[in-house]
Structures are given as structure tokens and as C-alpha cells.
Design a protein that fits this description.
With 594 residues, this protein is mainly alpha-helical. It is built from 24 helices and nine strands. The strands form four sheets. A three-stranded antiparallel β-sheet has the order 1-2-3. Helix 2 packs parallel to helix 23 and helix 13 crosses helix 14.
Length: 594
């Protein structure tokens, strides 16, 4: 083996030695061995691009899966024919298809939790603090969209450098063969153990051989400390660490290690080891349906799974960080940084409480008149709070506050900078809450609201969108904005706008339950959040967030089951929705088409 000269030379040597060993032809580390030069990873321009490596169209599923779908449909139709008809109308495709094989990058949350579990002594700074936010699709970090590019590549690898530098100072926290006087056999065994843990059980015997052989050889040349740091650096920048492989499958089915990863990352954003799933026992139990169910139950019972559920709600509701809420200080001087912080913390405290139950129900989130109030929020909520008192669960006026959509943290996130932005609020509700089709404004249409003296915001919107060309979309958008007009841009309850009484009445005709005609925001939100359209949209949004992709026609059978079980009898059990998703045949099957 050639003499290694410096960190970059060692990376080049290790990278070239491991060439061809990693999946999908990815060579060596994520930078091809020239990471410190700041260049882009080799596959960025070699066919994968920014799409995350989605491969090919979906293919037909095994007959057993189709048979299970038919049986589930028959059971739903028999137990509640009316609801099944609605479910089939929303999700009409009968033939299931497997998702395409894909290679997709871990999200920043997943990279954080994976590294923290692997190297707790050396994990210091969350990667989200140094690595820029990934492209968002409908405010979700879709795995299909995630890749490495010049903007996030260098920050990530510098983050890894900090970790490996810390390892260099305490190598025994990773490889400790001091009792064996650094015997090659011990170094070999511990290197294999570390790499297998880091790569979540997906490394082949040949890959482990090469990692271990070069580690032992490197120890002989540069010492244990530097060799261990390089082992960590090489592993954390390898494609198998930063990407999940669902390409090299076993006859279209995920291998046990892949399935274990899928369960852990899909439901909790964490590696199996962080969820108490030891590979040697978990991989054996995944060979039976009961074992798979046990693993799903174990993951969903963890705090990390509830933390991911919390991240879903924040992303679904598009709750902004305090410094991102753009209310103009000259128009809303009361909305100080302290108040901005408080409204977001209040919303998160409410969600944490409602989602902590063993079987959290969506109605607990959408139809509660409770909120967490502090002194900073007393003026917004119109309540008296003891001076300096922290956030406290408080029952509010049920004629003014009704669930998460009336909380200032959500309202302010969709307002501003100078007005309530009724159209913005309506667009959010149309797309994310009700999943109604919505296109872009017609070319050449002026989307700026006219300045009309003494006109309310509703009157300005009605004037600007009255034409037929606008009503195609605004007939859906406007009601969702109008019904929230009692809440100003900060989320305070009000009864007048420009000195005129607020008109929060709406009429819509697109619900399965029939025409809706309401006069107050509470009445409107109660009817809307009990509707089947809302429930099917929630099922879709959870599918998109957790699966890391948009749904396709071949996902209809699964979504039909998710919606039916969620809506039947008004159960709205959120964990059951995830159970149905994770138990589905498509969760472990991938298309055979490359």
C-alpha cells in the first residue's frame, strides 16, 4: 500500500480503493476523493441530478398484494357502503402498483438523528444549522427532490470534518483496542462493527472487507487516532450513509435491512439503532408479518416518532419560525420579536400536548378551544395572565377560538405584511387543507388588490376577483379567506374592519355532505374539519410527508384504506393512519423496472 501523505491523499487512496463497491456505481465517498477542493459530488452531473435518483416507472404488484387489496375493498364496502363510495370517488384506481425503485438522500433531520445516534460523543452542531434548507415541495422536504449540490455539499462535508476532528482527539470512543495493544484482529473486527452500524446493516461482506483492510493498513502507517478519524470521515461521506438504497432489491422486495430502514426513517426519521431496534434481532423478526407489525408498533411508540409527527404538523400547517413571520412593525408595532416567539411556541406547545396521547385524534387538534397563553399573548387572546407566567393551558371563548386554525401562530404565518392577506390564507386552505385543484393566475392578470378607500379587505378581494376568469379558482379560494376575517394579521379577534362590521359568512358547494352556508369562523371550521374532503386531504398530506413523494394512481388502493379507516365512525386516529401506511404491501415492494 503506498505511503499516505496528508488527509487529502488518504481520502483519495481510500476513495479509489473502495471504488465500485458502493451501490448504483457510486464511487468512494460523496466527493470522489476530492472533497476538500470544494467540488461537487461526482453523480450530480452523471444522471442522478437533483431529482434524487428516482428510477423508472412502477410495475405490477404480486398477485398476493392485489388479492389483499380486493379483500380490503370488499370489507370496506360491506361495512360502510356509503363511505366506501366516497373513498372510491376520491381514490378511484383499483389496481395497485409498486413505487419505483429509488436512491434518495436523507433529510437534514434524518442526517442529524443518524449521526447523533452513531457518534453521540462527537455530535455537536445540528447539520440544519450549517447545511442550507433543501428545496421544498408543498412545504415538505421530499426525498425524491433531495441531492447534493454546490450549496449544501461543502457545508455538509465541513460538518463531517468537525466530527472526524473530534474523533481524532478521542479515537477510543469509536475504536478501542487498547487492551489488545491494537492488534490487527481487534482493529479489523471493530472497524467492521462501526461501518455496519453506520450503514444500517446494508454493507455487503465485500464492502466490510475493504473498509476493515484499509483501516488496519492505515493504522500501521498513520496511527490509530488519524486512521479512526479518516474511517469516520470516509463513512459519513459515503453514498450508503447519506442515501437510502431502494434499488438493489430482492426480487422486487426490500431486503430485511432496507425494510428496517424504511420503517425507522419513514415513521421516526431515525436509524433503527436510535429506536431500540438491534439489527441482529430486528432483521430476523421482519421475516414474518407479526414481526413487522411488532417493529412498527415499537417505532411508533417512541418519542422520536412523535417528534416526527410534530414536524409533519408544523410543515403541513406551514407554521413559520418567529423571525420569518413578516408583519410590518410600523403597522403592527405590538407584534414584537417577543410576541412572535410566543405565538410560535404556543402553537407548538398545543400540538405537543394534543399529539402526546396514545391514540391522538385529529379532532383534538382541529376542534379544541384550548390554547397555551402567556403574558406576551394575553393581548392577542384577550385574557388575563399573571405577570411573567409561562405558557399555560387555557380554555378560551368557544365562539371565537376553535382548534389549530384559529391560533395566532398559524394565522400570522399566513398573513402580512400589512393586512390579513385573505387570498394567501385562502390559497393555503385550498391546497393544503382541502386538496382542491388550483392552478396559477391567468397570464396578464393583475393580482394586486385595488386600493379602495374605506373598503374592507373582503370588499377589496371581491372587487378584484369578480371576473369570470378569476372565479375559476377564487370561487374556492375566497371563502376560505373570508371565513377567517375575524382574525387580524396577528391573530387577534376583531369584529370590524375599516370601521365596518366583519362579514365572515361563506357559501360553498364542493363538500360531499352538501352545500355549506355559515356565518362565523367557528361554524365554518367545525363543518369543514368534519367533512370527508378534509379527511381525505389529511390522509394525502400524511402520505406525501411520510413517504417522501407525491401519490400516484397506483397508490389509490392504499389511500382508500387510509381514508376509510380514518373517517369511518369519525375515528380520526392519527396513529392508526400511520399503521395502515406502514402495513401496506407497497411499503416493502418496489418496481422491478430499473
Amino acid at each position: 500500500m503506498p505511503q499516505l501523505r496528508g488527509a487529502q491523499s488518504r481520502m483519495v487512496t481510500w476513495g479509489s480503493a473502495l471504488s465500485g463497491l458502493l451501490i448504483l456505481g457510486c464511487q468512494g465517498t460523496i466527493d470522489g476523493g476530492s472533497r476538500r477542493s470544494g467540488s461537487s459530488p461526482p453523480w450530480t452531473s452523471a444522471g442522478q441530478g437533483a431529482a434524487g435518483g428516482v428510477a423508472g416507472p412502477a410495475a405490477a404488484v404480486p398477485e398476493a398484494t392485489s388479492k389483499a387489496v380486493r379483500a380490503a375493498d370488499a370489507m370496506m364496502q360491506s361495512s360502510n357502503p356509503a363511505l366506501y363510495e366516497i373513498a372510491h370517488r376520491y381514490f378511484p384506481t383499483d389496481a395497485p402498483t409498486n413505487a419505483p425503485k429509488r436512491l434518495f438522500r436523507l433529510t437534514r433531520s434524518q442526517l442529524d438523528l443518524t449521526t447523533q445516534a452513531l457518534l453521540p460523543t462527537h455530535y455537536m452542531t445540528p447539520v440544519a444549522e450549517v447545511m442550507p434548507r433543501d428545496p421544498l415541495q408543498t412545504n415538505y422536504e421530499y426525498a425524491d427532490n433531495l441531492s447534493f449540490n454546490p450549496a449544501n455539499f461543502t457545508p455538509y462535508t465541513r460538518w463531517v470534518e468537525q466530527i472526524s476532528s473530534s474523533v481524532r482527539g478521542k479515537p477510543t470512543s469509536v475504536i478501542d483496542c487498547t487492551a489488545q495493544k491494537d492488534a490487527p484482529s481487534c482493529l479489523d473486527a471493530q472497524a467492521r462493527t462501526f461501518v455496519q452500524r453506520a450503514l444500517r446493516g446494508t454493507a455487503s461482506s465485500a464492502q466490510l472487507d475493504h473498509y476493515a483492510q484499509f483501516f488496519v493498513a492505515s493504522v500501521a502507517q498513520v496511527g490509530v487516532a488519524q486512521a479512526t478519524a479518516d474511517l469516520v470521515d470516509l463513512t459519513l461521506t459515503s453514498p450508503q450513509y447519506v442515501f437510502r438504497d431502494e434499488v438493489q432489491t430482492e426480487a422486487g422486495s426490500l431486503a430485511p435491512a432496507q425494510l428496517l430502514q424504511n420503517i425507522a426513517y419513514t415513521l421516526a426519521d431515525a436509524p433503527p439503532s436510535a429506536l431500540g431496534l438491534a439489527p441482529e434481532t430486528a432483521l430476523a423478526q421482519l421475516k414474518t408479518p407479526d414481526g413487522v407489525q411488532k417493529a412498527i408498533d415499537q417505532v411508533l411508540a417512541t418519542p422520536l416518532a412523535r417528534q416526527k409527527l410534530m414536524r409533519f404538523f408544523i410543515a403541513w400547517l406551514e407554521v413559520k419560525e418567529p423571525d420569518e413571520i413578516a408583519l410590518a412593525p410600523d403597522v403592527f408595532p405590538e407584534f414584537t420579536p417577543e410576541v412572535a416567539q410566543a405565538v410560535v411556541e404556543s402553537t407548538k406547545a398545543f400540538l405537543n400536548q394534543q399529539l402526546a396521547a396514545a391514540a391522538p385524534k385529529l379532532k383534538d387538534v382541529t376542534q379544541s378551544s384550548q390554547a397555551f397563553v402567556s403574558e406576551a399573548l394575553s393581548a392577542i387572546y384577550g385574557t388575563k395572565v399573571a405577570r411573567g407566567k409561562t405558557l399555560t393551558a387555557t380554555q378560551l371563548d368557544p365562539t371565537q377560538r376553535f382548534g389549530i386554525f384559529t391560533q395566532p401562530g398559524v394565522i400570522a404565518s399566513h398573513s402580512g405584511p400589512t393586512t390579513t392577506r385573505l387570498v394567501k390564507r385562502g390559497v393555503f386552505f385550498t391546497r393544503k387543507v382541502m386538496c382542491l385543484p388550483l392552478g396559477l393566475p391567468p397570464a396578464g392578470v393583475n393580482t394586486t388588490l385595488p386600493e379602495v378607500k374605506n373598503a374592507t379587505e373582503r370588499e377589496r378581494v371581491e372587487t378584484a376577483t369578480a371576473s369570470a376568469v378569476c372565479q375559476g379558482c377564487h370561487s374556492s379560494i375566497n371563502p376560505f379567506g373570508f371565513m377567517q376575517e375575524n382574525y387580524d394579521a396577528m391573530g387577534r379577534w376583531r369584529t370590524t374592519d375599516q370601521g365596518k362590521p366583519i362579514n365572515a359568512s361563506i357559501q360553498v358547494s364542493f363538500l360531499d355532505e352538501g352545500p355549506l352556508d355559515t356565518r362565523t369562523p367557528v361554524e365554518a371550521l367545525q363543518k369543514l374539519t368534519e367533512s370527508h374532503r378534509f379527511q381525505q386531504c389529511f390522509a394525502r398530506q400524511m402520505f406525501r410527508f411520510y413517504m417522501g413523494r407525491d401519490e400516484g394512481p397506483g397508490d389509490d388502493p392504499l389511500l382508500r384504506q387510509m381514508f376509510f379507516g380514518f373517517a369511518d365512525g369519525g375515528r380520526e386516529n392519527i396513529v392508526d393512519l400511520l399503521q395502515t401506511l406502514a402495513r401496506s404491501g407497497g411499503f416493502s415492494q418496489r418496481s422491478e423496472v430499473p
